[in-house]
Amino acid sequence: MFEGVIGYIIGGAVIGILARFLKPGADPMGWILTILLGIAGAYAGSQLAAMLNLTSTLMVWACAIGAAIVLLFLYEAIRRKTPRAA
């Protein structure tokens, strides 16, 4: 889907930002975590699109953003369960 490391970083940033914009609620995380989450979502979404035999670029992006939103929910659930040090 993306070529090169810079492409993954830029694409991950765009997908992470779109996922955070579309997901309801506050997401208190920095831009580095947003990019990493977007990269992971892009990878998972592109794998899902390949498994579903989707070839449209728009559908691949939709899968990537959807996967990033799922990862946001997982991150939020893990963050709530982790006790904070006093």
TrEMBL record:
<feature type="transmembrane region" description="Helical">
    <location>
        <begin position="6"/>
        <end position="22"/>
    </location>
</feature>
<dbReference type="Pfam" id="PF04226">
    <property type="entry name" value="Transgly_assoc"/>
</dbReference>
<dbReference type="InterPro" id="IPR007341">
    <property type="entry name" value="Transgly_assoc"/>
</dbReference>
<protein>
    <submittedName>
        <fullName>Membrane protein YeaQ/YmgE (Transglycosylase-associated protein family)</fullName>
    </submittedName>
</protein>
<keyword id="KW-1133">Transmembrane helix</keyword>
<keyword id="KW-1003">Cell membrane</keyword>
<feature type="transmembrane region" description="Helical">
    <location>
        <begin position="58"/>
        <end position="78"/>
    </location>
</feature>
<keyword id="KW-0472">Membrane</keyword>
<feature type="transmembrane region" description="Helical">
    <location>
        <begin position="29"/>
        <end position="52"/>
    </location>
</feature>
<comment type="similarity">
    <text>Belongs to the UPF0410 family.</text>
</comment>
<keyword id="KW-0812">Transmembrane</keyword>
